[in-house]
Write a structure and sequence with these properties.
By secondary structure, this protein is mainly alpha-helical. Helices cover 29% and strands 6% of the residues. The strands form five sheets. The protein has a three-stranded antiparallel beta sheet with strand order 1-2-3. Strand 9 and strand 10 form a beta hairpin. The N and C termini lie far apart (66 Å). It holds the Pfam family An_peroxidase. It is found in: Secreted.
C-alpha cells in the first residue's frame, strides 16, 4: 500500500519547531501531554496507519496474545516497512506524534522522515540535530514482532520491538537504557498485549499482604510483585547492547565457565567454626522466599529442558546457552561428557510495558513474606500436612507431591514421592526440606493457638493471622540472627522509605548471594539430642532426594545436625558434590556443575564485572594485579593471574573486570564475624536493606506497631 499523507490539522509554526527541545528529561523527552509538551507539533501530521488484522483476516491479537503462545520459528528478520503500510483505525490523533526525541545526528525510518526533515534533517541521510521516534514507528516495530511466530511471550515481543527500533535508528547504549523506557507504550498497539496488572493497578490499603506482592508500595504498586523485572545497581553489559550474553570489553570471548569453575574453585576448603550448616539452610530458605528467575521448563517434568546438548541447531531449544566442557577436563572426560544443558531466562515485562534491553524477571515476590509456607487445607487456618508418624506421637511431615511428581525430584521408583510446599524447590536438598517442614509446623501451631483464643474466627482470619505472625518470625530471625553473623551488627535501620524499591537486585540474585555455595559441606551430618554425632550422607545423595525424612524420627536428627555441624569457610573452595555431581540421576557417576551455572547466569544477565562493582562500592579502580592485594587473599590473586596467562597468554586485568565477578564474591579479606569482605558485603547490603526499608508493614518499623 502506498504511503499517503493527510492534510495538517493546522498551520505549522516555525517557532514551534525551533522551540522543540525546551522540555528536557535528561537527554530525552517523551510526549506525555500534548497540551504542555513542545512535541505537540507532531500531532498535526497523520502518518500511515496499520491494520489490526493480518492479510488473511486473522483474529484480533487479543485472542492469541496470551502471556504465551505456540511458536516454531526462530528466524529474526529485519523490518519490512513497505509490507506493513496498512490502515489502522486508532482512537485519537496522536500516533504520529513523537514518542521519543533523541539528541544528536538525525536518524530516521520511513515513518519519521518528514517529521525529522522538519526538525533539521536537510537531506536523505537524516543529518538533523535531533530525531523524533513516532508512535507509528513503535507500532510498526510491534506489528513486525507480532508476525514472527517464534515470539512466545509479551516480554519477548517487547524485546523484539526494542531491538527493531535500536536497529532502525542506530540507537546508542544510552539511548537504549535511558531513552526507550521513556516511550509511553499505552499510546501504541502494545497496549493490546500489556498485562492489566502492569498497566494500571489500583491499590486499597488492607491488613494482610497480597500473595502476588502487588501494592506493597502504594505509590509504586508493582514494586516487589511477582513476575516483575529484577532491579539493577548498574546498567547491563550485553554483547549486542540488547540481550546477548556478555563478552569481554575487547570483544573476545570470556573464559569458558567450566574452565573458571575447575581452576578457581577447587575442592580444597576448610571449616569455619564461626558458623554451622544452619546458616546455609536458613540462607537458602529465605533465598527461595524472594528469588526465582523465569526460565523455560519441560512441559512434562516441569524441570529444566534437556534440549541443547548433542542436538543440531534447528532442534535446539531457542533459549539454549549450553556449557561446553573442555576435552581435557579432569573429571567429565572420564565419562565422555562434552556439554551440559543450560537455558537462558525469559525477558521481563516492565511496568507499563516499557521498552528497553532485556531484564530478566523474578517469579516470586521480592520481599520476605514467607510465601514458602503455604498450601492451605481450608480448615481452621491450617496448612495441608502429612501425619505419617501420628501413631508414634511424632509431628507431621509435608504433604506428598502428587502433581508433577518428578518436578525438582529424583525418585528412586514410581512409588516414592517427594514433598510439596509453597515453593517448588522445596526438595532441592534435604536440609531445605527440613526448614520448610519446621516453618509449616510453626504455622499450624500458631493457627491452633489463635483458634483457642478466638473461637469465633473463621478459616480465612485464622490463616491470615497465623501467616502474619509467621512472616514476622522469618523477618526477625533473618535480620536479628542470620544477617548479623554475615554482615556484622552495624548499619541497620528500622524506618520506612517509600522511595526504596524492594524488588530483587539482579547482581544479588545472579552473583552476590550465591556466596553460600562455598559454605556447602561434602556430607550432611545427623546428630542426637545429646549433641553426639550419629552418621553422615553425601550431599549429592540428598539433592532432590529428601526421602530419608520418611524414616521416623530422622528429621530431628538432621535438625540437630544443622546446629552442630560446622560449615565450610567462605573462600574460593567449593565442594565437588555440586561442581561435579549436582542433580545427578539415579545410578549416574556424574552430575552438573553449579559454579558453571552461576557463571553462565551472570553473563546472560549482562552483569558488569568485578572492577565495575569495586567502583560502584566506592573502592579504587586498579589496572594491575598489585592493586588487588588487601581486597582478596594473596593466593586468589596469584591464581587469577596465572589462570588468565594460561588462557590468553597475558594477565590482562581487563579480562578479570569482565569475566570474574563470581569468584570475587567468595573471597575473604577485611572480615566480619563470618568472613565477609567489604565489597562483597556492599553488593549484598543494598538488596537486604531494601527488603526492610522498602516495606511499610515491616514488624520493626518505627511507623507501625510491632507484631
Amino acid at each position: 500500500m502506498k504511503l499517503q499523507w493527510r492534510k495538517p490539522f493546522g498551520v505549522l509554526n516555525p517557532k514551534t519547531l525551533k522551540d522543540v527541545g525546551d522540555v528536557p528529561v535528561g537527554p530525552y523527552r517523551t510526549r506525555s501531554d500534548s497540551r504542555h509538551n513542545a512535541n505537540h507539533f507532531a500531532s498535526r501530521y497523520h502518518d500511515a496507519r496499520f491494520d489490526r488484522h493480518s492479510k488473511n483476516g486473522a483474529a484480533n491479537p487479543s485472542s492469541f496474545f496470551h502471556f504465551f503462545f505456540v511458536s516454531s520459528s526462530s528466524t529474526v528478520a529485519s523490518a519490512n516497512f513497505d509490507r506493513i503500510f496498512q490502515q489502522l483505525d486508532l482512537p485519537g490523533n496522536g500516533n504520529s506524534e513523537c514518542a521519543l526525541v533523541i539528541n544528536g545526528p538525525g536518524r530516521s525510518s520511513h515513518f519519521d522522515y518528514t517529521l525529522n526533515l522538519l526538525r533539521g534533517g536537510g537531506n536523505t541521510d537524516f543529518n538533523g540535530h535531533q530525531t523524533c521516534i513516532t508512535y507509528d514507528a513503535v507500532n510498526a516495530a510491534y506489528l513486525d514482532a507480532r508476525k514472527r511466530i517464534h515470539v512466545g511471550s509479551v516480554g519477548e515481543v517487547l524485546l523484539d520491538i526494542s531491538m527493531n527500533l535500536a536497529r532502525t535508528y542506530g540507537l546508542s547504549y544510552e539511548d537504549i537504557e535511558k531513552g526507550l523506557p521513556l516511550i509511553d507504550t499505552s499510546k501504541t498497539l502494545i497496549r493490546e498485549i500489556c498485562p492489566p496488572f502492569l498497566a494500571n493497578v489500583e491499590c486499597v490499603a488492607g491488613k494482610y499482604r497480597r500473595f502476588d506482592g502487588l501494592c506493597t508500595n502504594l505509590e509504586h504498586p508493582t514494586w516487589g510483585a511477582t513476575n516483575t523485572p529484577f532491579t539493577r545497581l548498574m546498567g547491563p553489559l550485553y554483547s549486542d547492547g540488547m540481550h546477548s550474553p556478555r563478552i569481554s570489553g575487547s570483544g573476545r570471548a570470556l573464559p569458558p565457565s567450566r574452565v573458571v569453575s575447575r581452576t578457581m574453585h577447587p575442592d580444597e576448603g576448610f571449616h569455619d567454626h564461626a558458623g554451622t550448616v544452619m546458616i546455609i539452610a536458613w540462607g537458602q530458605f529465605i533465598d527461595h522466599d524472594f528469588t526465582l528467575q523465569g526460565t523455560p521448563l519441560d512441559p512434562f517434568s516441569k524441570n529444566d529442558p534437556e534440549e541443547c546438548c548433542g542436538r543440531p541447531a534447528h532442534l535446539k531449544h531457542p533459549y539454549c546457552n549450553e556449557i561446553i566442557i573442555p576435552e581435557d577436563d579432569y573429571f567429565y572426560r572420564l565419562w565422555g561428557v562434552k556439554c551440559i544443558d543450560f537455558v537462558r531466562t525469559f525477558p521481563s515485562v516492565r511496568p507499563g510495558c516499557r521498552l528497553g534491553s532485556k531484564v530478566p524477571f523474578n517469579t516470586l515476590t521480592g520481599v520476605l513474606d514467607a510465601n514458602t509456607v503455604k498450601l492451605r487445607s481450608g480448615v481452621g487456618g491450617l496448612l495441608r500436612m502429612n501425619p505419617a508418624f501420628e501413631q508414634y506421637g511424632l509431628k507431621d511431615l509435608l504433604p506428598l507431591k502428587l502433581d508433577y511428581p518428578d518436578e525438582g525430584c529424583t525418585r528412586p521408583n514410581a512409588t516414592m514421592y517427594c514433598f510439596e510446599a509453597g515453593e517448588i524447590r522445596v526438595n532441592e536438598q534435604l536440609v531445605l526440606t527440613v526448614m520448610h517442614t519446621l516453618m509449616a509446623r510453626e504455622h499450624n501451631r500458631l493457627a491452633r493457638g489463635l483458634a483457642e483464643v478466638n473461637p469465633h474466627w473463621d478459616d480465612e482470619t485464622l490463616f491470615q493471622e497465623a501467616r502474619r505472625i509467621n512472616i514476622g518470625i522469618v523477618q526477625h530471625i533473618t535480620y536479628n540472627e542470620f544477617l548479623p553473623i554475615l554482615l556484622g551488627k552495624d548499619g541497620y535501620w528500622n524506618g520506612y522509605d517509600s522511595s526504596v524499591n524492594p524488588g530483587v537486585i539482579d547482581a544479588f540474585a545472579a552473583a552476590a548471594y550465591r556466596f553460600g555455595h562455598s559454605l556447602l559441606p561434602t556430607a550432611v551430618e545427623r546428630w542426637s539430642k545429646a549433641h553426639k554425632f550419629i552418621a553422615s550422607k553425601r550431599l549429592s545423595d540428598l539433592i532432590r532426594r529428601p526421602h530419608d525424612l520418611y524414616r521416623a524420627g530422622i528429621l530431628d536428627e538432621y535438625v540437630m545436625g544443622l546446629m552442630n555441624q560446622v560449615a565450610q569457610a567462605m573462600d574460593d573452595s567449593i565442594t565437588q558434590e555440586v561442581t561435579n555431581h549436582l542433580f545427578k540421576k539415579p545410578g549416574a557417576r556424574f552430575g552438573m556443575d553449579l559454579v558453571s551455572f552461576n557463571m553462565q547466569r551472570g553473563r546472560e544477565f549482562g552483569l558488569p564485572g568485578y572492577m565495575e562493582f569495586r567502583k560502584f562500592c566506592g573502592l579504587p579502580w586498579t589496572d594491575n594485579f598489585d592493586g588487588l592485594f588487601g581486597a582478596m587473599p594473596n593466593e586468589t590473586i596469584y591464581g587469577l593471574e596465572e589462570f588468565l596467562k594460561d588462557l590468553y597468554q597475558e594477565a590482562c586485568l581487563g579480562l578479570l573486570s569482565h569475566a570474574l565477578l563470581l569468584p570475587s564474591s567468595v573471597t575473604v579479606e577485611e572480615e566480619t564475624d563470618f568472613g565477609m569482605n567489604y565489597q562483597t558485603n556492599h553488593r549484598r547490603s543494598p538488596h537486604l536493606n531494601s527488603r526492610k526499608s522498602g516495606r511499610p508493614d515491616w514488624p520493626e518499623s518505627s511507623a507501625i506497631t510491632p507484631i
